[in-house]
Design a protein that fits this description.
307 residues; 8 strands; Rossmann fold; GTP binding; Four Helix Bundle (Hemerythrin (Met), subunit A); 12 helices; receptor; single chain; AAA+_ATPase; SRP54_N_sf
């Protein structure tokens, strides 16, 4: 996918957010000068666009510090907002990298059922393949036959090996087999699907603790990444998922999926401001190359409607 078409996809994915923000900022600019009243309106516009009260307050303060009392056109205001959004996003933009030694790099991928977790695993595998890394998948979500089958289908489609067991099997033993096989075969990255049940946090915590224990015996550094997949259409509910999974699973980074035009994309900014967890990649569709490393400056401009 070319850079231009990726930018177009992003515009489509963040359409709801950028349109809402643009509408609200357009009505603000009619007042011409950036005074307290205008800044209040800007802050409200940001909150209404799902950027969250904390990020909105921070952006308002920065605009006040830099631009207070100045007359601004609509474009200038959007440019200024884009720059402040980028300031929030830049520190968390961290692509997934295969750096583990000894290999393999072990990535545990978690997220509630329906978040696009299994598809995202395939897309991450594809990104690694593009960088010439050997990849293996492990079907650790053994509670749903559909999850095992779906991951196996993707593995076949992108041409990577998969370690799988029976439905209802022990996820930790799948992970154990996966790490052994990946080590024996000189695989660079092992991506592990895990169960997405949040209804019983204790059960999920116990299961992940068992997986970690098994990994620790094989490689004390593993898992190297615990990646939470979030569905952007969930808006503020996605923040609640970060809170829970951070506590339950020790999340080390995020991937945001389903930025498809209906999404509440501003929540990406809220997540960055509130949690500061690395954002590795964002997904805008179902196709294999619809996931890309997170570009904070481009996303900031798209959200503000100036890219």
């Amino acid at each position: 996918m070319s850079e231009t078409s990726w930018k177009d996809r992003l515009f489509g994915g963040f359409r709801k957010t950028s349109e809402r923000l643009s509408e609200n900022l357009t009505s603000v600019v009619s007042t011409a000068k950036l005074d307290d009243s205008t800044l209040d309106d800007v802050e409200d516009a940001l909150i209404l666009s799902d950027l969250g009260p904390s990020a909105a307050s921070r952006i308002r303060q920065k605009l006040s510090d830099k631009k207070f009392g100045l007359s601004m056109t609509e474009t200038e205001l959007k440019e200024a907002v884009a720059e402040e959004i980028a300031e929030i996003l830049r520190p968390v933009a961290k692509p997934l990298e295969v750096v583990a030694f000894p290999r393999p790099q072990v990535l545990l991928v978690i997220g509630v059922n329906g978040s696009g977790k299994t598809t995202t695993i395939a897309k991450v595998a594809h990104l690694f393949q593009e960088d010439d890394y050997g990849v293996m998948l492990a079907a650790g979500d053994t509670f749903r036959a559909a999850a095992i089958g779906q991951l196996a289908t993707w593995a076949e489609r992108i041409g990577v090996p998969i370690i799988r067991g029976a439905e209802g099997g022990d996820p930790a033993s799948i992970v154990f087999d996966g790490v052994k096989a990946a080590t024996d075969q000189g695989i660079d990255a092992l991506i592990v699907d895990t169960a997405g049940r949040l209804q019983n946090k204790r059960e999920l915590m116990d299961e992940l603790a068992k997986i970690r224990k098994v990994l620790g015996r094989l490689n004390p550094e593993a898992p190297h990444d615990v990646v939470l997949v979030l569905d952007a259409t969930n808006g503020q509910n996605a923040l609640a998922q970060i809170e829970t999974f951070k506590e339950v699973a020790g999340v080390t980074g995020l991937i945001m999926t389903k930025l498809d035009g209906t999404a509440r994309g501003g929540v990406l900014v809220a997540a960055a401001e509130q949690y500061g967890l690395p954002i590795h990649a964002i997904g805008v569709g179902e196709k294999i190359d619809d996931l890309r490393p997170f570009d904070p400056d481009l996303v900031a401009r798209v959200i503000a409607g100036v890219a």
